[in-house]
Structure formats: structure tokens, C-alpha cells
## 1
Amino acid sequence: GQNIDQPTEMTATEGAIVQINCTYQTSGFNGLFWYQQHAGEAPTFLSYNVLDGLEEKGRFSSFLSRSKGYSYLLLKELQMKDSASYLCAVRDRNDYKLSFGAGTTVTVRA
Amino acid sequence: DTEVTQTPKHLVMGMTNKKSLKCEQHMGHRAMYWYKQKAKKPPELMFVYSYEKLSINESVPSRFSPECPNSSLLNLHLHALQPEDSALYLCASKGNSEPGANVLTFGAGSRLTVL
């Protein structure tokens, strides 16, 4: 099974940077995903890491260290619309099974 | 079409009712999923269909019955539910080939209330 941990809440100021950490313990690993979910809406895909290192996509970057079972999502130049829950998800050896962490609620303040 | 469409958006049912949730995608994806999400909790996997065959059932109670009539449609039949089954039910599909093979695309969800 999967054990995925991430902080419950984070608050930051508009224009700032926030880093959301995720640690995982899995019986098998086949990729780590970050999703954004606004309240009452569906999760939307942000990033995917399967190899160690940093993936950059505009204002969002994601990092993975497989040996440490660790990932982070970096949100730069925060905007009010970035206030949402950010879900770390791990895919195990079964290519179809994706398990989610509890999510980190990010609140962006003016 | 890059969307997963779920109907209805909201459903209220009694514990003796029989109802169905529907999910449709026209992206040619061959894997479709049902997740259940309670408020302020992560989505929990319920079922996965791959090429119209049930490949994963996460020990879901039999009062939830999935059905995949064809590669574009996924249903979740509901019968004799309990109030604790009230939740947001999310459907998702997964791409078949790169670059989308790794990504789940979610529908907007069906919010179910069981009275």
C-alpha cells in the first residue's frame, strides 16, 4: 500500500513563493503526480515526475528524490487564484492505481 | 473533446432508492476510474476499468455496482446506500499513449447526498 504525507495547510502572500513537501512510503513506485483542486471542483493535473530531478512548468515546478521518498511542489509568483488544495499522488507498480495524499490547502493573502 | 462529463451534478436519494451516476469521455481513453471523496479528504479509489473489464475493485461494498457498457461510458449503480455514503463521486480516465499515458483527467464530479 501507500503512505503519503503532506502538510495540512500553508499560507503565503501574493507574489511570494511556497513549497509544498510530500513524503511517501510505497510497496512499489511508478511515478508521482501533483494535482490542484479548488473547493467543490475536480482535481486538475499539474505535474508528473518519474525520474529524480526538477520538472519546471511555468510558475509551477516539481522535484522528486526516489531514494528519499520525497517530492515538493514549488509555486512561484503566487496569485489569489492559486488558493486551492494541492494533492500529491503516487502510482504504484500497478499502472492503473493512483493513491492520493490528504492534500495541502494553500491560502494566498493579498 | 478533452473532457470527462459526469451526470448528474447533484443527486439526493433515500436509503431505499436505486439511482445511477454516469460518466462519459470521448478522448479514446481505455482506462476509466471511480473515486469517492469526502469533504476535506483525498479522493479514494473505488474501481478501475481497463478495456471495458473491471481490473481493480478496492473492496467496495456491493451496494455500489459499476458498469462499463462501452469504452466511452462508465456507470455507477447505487442501491440501498447509507448516509455515510454521501460524498463527491469523481470519474476519471487515463490516456493510452505518451504524453498523456500517465495522467488522469477528472470529471467535475457528482455530489451525492443520502438521506
## 2
Amino acid sequence: DTEVTQTPKHLVMGMTNKKSLKCEQHMGHRAMYWYKQKAKKPPELMFVYSYEKLSINESVPSRFSPECPNSSLLNLHLHALQPEDSALYLCASSQEPLGQGGYTFGSGTRLTVV
Amino acid sequence: GQQLNQSPQSMFIQEGEDVSMNCTSSSIFNTWLWYKQDPGEGPVLLIALYKAGELTSNGRLTAQFGITRKDSFLNISASIPSDVGIYFCAALFGNEKLTFGTGTRLTIIP
């Protein structure tokens, strides 16, 4: 298995909703990442999990809450989002944290906040 | 912070033409990566480069890690319709975060 799987593929939520994005990999990678990507822009790093521990939070607002239940799973809990949070949310993994190996990206969750 | 200047920003070519794009930086890196992203999908790794001067091919794609460690280029030969998309360079140094270029949008004119 050489994939990063993200669910759901699309999500529409209201500003008062609570929802979660899920990410799964079975490549034995020890690092997992959340990125946010706006249209026509490169991905922007949000969080890094290294050996299941949060190692980097890029000053992300607290309405985004990451969770790493085990080495294969990564969640992003969403609460009280704003319309400007609408974007493609990408999960990625790498063999070693911030290491030299290539990052494998999932296909993303297209989030629309209404 | 580190920045990658990717050019050109967009390209309009005819099927069968060769394509060349590059990334430059004022900082040195020890890994260069090239990704392709289709609309609504995540980036897919095309080529990874780990040594200065390294030249690597993947089918019709060829990429090089610049000798100064501050740049990289990607060439696509004999373009086909499925090459359409956005190409991102990305680079790493030590334990720093992955830095992305600004992207090159490739369009094939019928």
C-alpha cells in the first residue's frame, strides 16, 4: 500500500458545525502532515506529527484541532470555521519527520464553509 | 524564510512540444522534489533528487539538481494531453520544513 487516503473527498459545513477530516496511511511512515491549499497557490503547512506527537503548529487558529490516534491515522477536527477557511486540505506522510525522502500526499478534502 | 522562485508561472504549448521549467533560490537545499497536481487532487511526486549535479529521468520527464544546490529544473519531452496540470518544485534542507515553489501551470493548446 503506497497511498495516503483522505475522507471525505468533499465537505460542506456551516460556521456553527463540528466536523472532522480523516487521513490514513499504511506505509509505516513516522511523520504525518496537514496542509491547506487555496486555489492557484502552493500547499501551506499547518501541522506536523512526528512519531505520533505534534511537533510543529504553524500558528494555526484553534478552530483547527489535529489529532493522531496512532501511527497510521491523522484527524483534523473543525469547529466554528469561517468562510475564508474554505480550501483544499491535504494530508501527507513521510518516512522520517522532515526527512530527505519524498512526501506522499493524499488526494485532499475540498472544504466549503457556508 | 526560504523561498523558491518557480518559472514560468504558466505555459501554453502544443501537443508534442518539449517543456522546461525551473526553480531557483538564494538558499541551498539538500533535496529537490518535483510534483504534479491535477485539479481537485493532491500533488503526486514525479522525481526526487538528493545530490548536487544529479540528473534523473522518469519516462519523458528529466530533472536535475543544480550544482550550486540552489536550483533545479524539470524537462518534459514530447508533451501529451495528460501532462496538463500544475507542476510544483519543492525543496528540503536538513530538518527544515518542505518549501514549495509557486507552481507552473501547463496548458496544451489543441
